[in-house]
Design goal:
The protein is of the alpha/beta class and about 575 residues long. Helices cover about 55% and strands about 15% of the residues. It folds into 2 domains: about 260 residues, Rossmann fold, CATH 3.40.50.300; about 150 residues, no CATH class.
Length: about 575
């Protein structure tokens, strides 16, 4: 949904901000007031070619900001996530300077023009510029038909979707498993790596022990000197042993007077024994302490080997073992690939057969839906004064069984396109080549009124739809707008009172002099102002009570009509 449009320095616009609402938004005003400039500004924001001639005279640059709420559009949110955005609001900001340079930003981050156009095609249809009309792209026609016919809810579609994913995975695995010189080299490499790691027979316990031994051998002299100093503290005159012995004798003497001191004397006796044992252990260590060059070389080589293997296969011995298991499994898969490939080929063949059957079934369902769709389109076109039209959903010839690999998609094997002839007797032509202007807008309105419940595009903008229509046709257009606007936001530039009366939100565009220059202004109309504008569009030269009464009657009838559509929506 388009929330707002902010325009600066475009043609006669100095600064204009429009806040749109849900339902039907209409923009009306005298010819030349600037309605087309507003649409051009929005198209510029959505990726149309920038035109320097649109920059307001005397200004260095123009800018347009369009803000959309896409919180209810799961596909667009997924698309945005793929671009690195996780916002429910889409804020598009685009500028163009007189030097031809410009910027494009999405939520404050610079993006490319192609990225902008990809996004725009998902959130808005502008029925005056072909680049922003999703229905003019043949690639979307099958999707619209499937939505209309409920094809996506059929059990065949669910089964096809699942089989298609299995088929793609089988094709991918076959491609990776195909014999090649690269695979032979890979096998040779894996064998070498497996032998190298297994020959090393690594263990984390051994690594810790090697590091301990290396630390001792590299510091023999320091350890010897410091342990000798420690022995000096433990024994000899003034050492810990003699001091504990003296303390023990004193406490024993005192225990003769208070036998509660006896346990303390015993503890001192135990301490003396422990110290003596420590002395003996340190002496033995010093006796055996020596530098062994052969042992030092062995330890260093072993640690270098471990370091080298870590550099190649993992940061830790545990990671190296994990890598070993991985390449063993991969080597086994490759070496046994012949049987593996045969199994995959069999699976692929079975899946192709099932995909072809399901695609044929879905194709028949689509053709049945296409007949119903065609009738509804022609009925709607007749209501919109286009009785001489012809319309067909044209399917390509259904592929043969042998073309599955080339033609299959996640929705089957059909290729379909909408064809139209707007004048009786003229040949059907692809929808993309339909004439522009009011007829195109009315045709799109007919399509949208049929598929509005399944169409993902939330915002629809109609321009020139009132070209060449009036009376009952104008009323029919207004009613279709009311019906579609229950599920989509519509923004319509109009000269018809029937459409203006049906609006949920009304805007008046005017051209006035201000600050010594001519500028375009826009006003959101209140209820009374809306009635005055409808009266003007009816053709009243002055806002007499009769003209206003007629306008209010039209608005009341329109409100009643919209109420009926809301009730139908609630029942649905």
């Amino acid at each position: 949904m388009l929330l707002s449009l902010d325009i600066k320095n475009v043609a006669l616009i100095t600064h204009l901000r429009i806040e749109f609402g849900r339902g039907l938004n209409t923009l009306s005003g005298e010819t030349g007031a600037g309605k087309s400039i507003i649409l051009d500004s929005l198209s510029f924001a959505l990726g149309s070619k920038g035109d320097k001639s649109l920059i307001r005279s005397g200004e260095a640059a123009m800018s347009v900001e369009a803000v959309f709420d896409v919180s209810g559009d799961a596909e667009t949110l997924k698309f945005l996530e793929g671009m690195g955005f996780e916002d429910n609001l889409v804020i598009i900001y685009r500028t163009l300077g007189t030097d031809g340079r410009g910027t494009i930003q999405l939520n404050g981050r610079t993006i490319t023009l192609s990225m902008l156009r990809d996004l725009a095609g998902r959130i808005i249809d502008i029925y005056s510029q072909a680049e922003h009309i999703s229905l003019l792209k043949p690639s979307t026609h099958l999707k619209f038909l499937d939505g209309y016919g409920g094809i996506g809810n059929l059990p065949q579609m669910a089964e096809l979707s699942k089989a298609y994913e299995q088929y793609r995975e089988a094709v991918r695995q076959l491609k990776e498993s195909a014999p090649s010189e690269d695979r032979d080299r890979l096998c040779e490499l894996y064998r070498f790596q497996i032998e190298e790691i297994e020959r090393a027979a690594l263990s984390e316990e051994e690594e810790a022990e090697l590091q301990r031994i290396q630390g001792r051998l590299n510091n023999v002299e320091r350890i010897s000197d410091e342990l000798k100093q420690a022995l000096g503290f433990l024994k000899g005159d003034g050492g810990i042993s003699s001091l504990i012995s003296a303390a023990k004798g004193i406490v024993y003497k005192c225990s003769r007077y208070d036998n509660s001191l006896a346990p303390i004397a015993e503890r001192l006796e135990s301490a003396a024994i422990e110290i003596e044992d420590i002395e003996a252990t340190v002496n033995d260590y010093l006796y055996n302490l020596e530098y062994d060059p052969a042992e030092a070389e062995r330890v260093e080589k072993r640690l270098d080997l471990i370091k080298n293997l870590k550099r190649k296969y993992g940061r830790t011995i545990s990671e190296i073992h994990g890598y070993l298991e991985k390449i063993k499994a991969e080597l086994d898969r490759i070496e046994n690939s012949r049987q593996y490939i045969e199994e995959l080929e069999g699976k692929k063949t079975l899946l192709e057969g099932r995909l072809y059957e399901l695609s044929a079934q879905l194709s028949q369902k689509r053709k049945e839906a296409a007949e119903r769709f065609k009738k509804e389109v022609l009925d709607n076109l007749s209501e919109l004064s286009m009785k001489g039209c012809s319309f067909e959903v044209c399917f390509d010839e259904f592929p043969s069984r042998g073309e599955v690999a080339k033609m299959i998609t996640s929705s089957g094997m059909d290729r379909a396109e909408f064809f139209i002839s707007t004048n009786k007797g003229e040949p059907l032509k692809p929808l993309a080549r339909i004439i522009s202007g009011g007829e195109m807008s009315r045709f799109m309105l007919a399509i949208k009124s049929i598929i509005s419940d399944t169409d993902d595009i939330d915002t629809l903008i109609f321009d020139e739809i009132d070209t060449g229509i009036s009376g009952d046709t104008a009323t029919a257009v207004a009613k279709k707008f009311a019906a579609i606007s229950q599920r989509h936001q519509i923004i319509a530039i109009t000269h018809l009172p029937q459409i203006a009366a049906m609006a949920d939100v009304s805007f008046l565009i005017e051209k006035r002099e201000a600050g010594g220059s001519t500028q375009t202004f826009i006003t959101k109309l209140s209820g009374g102002e809306k009635a005055s504008e409808v009266a003007r569009l009816i053709g009243a030269k002055d806002l007499s009570s009769h003209a206003l009464l007629h306008a209010r009657e039209m608005i009341a009838w329109s409100d009643s009509c919209k109420g009926q559509f809301r009730r139908k929506k609630g029942e649905a």
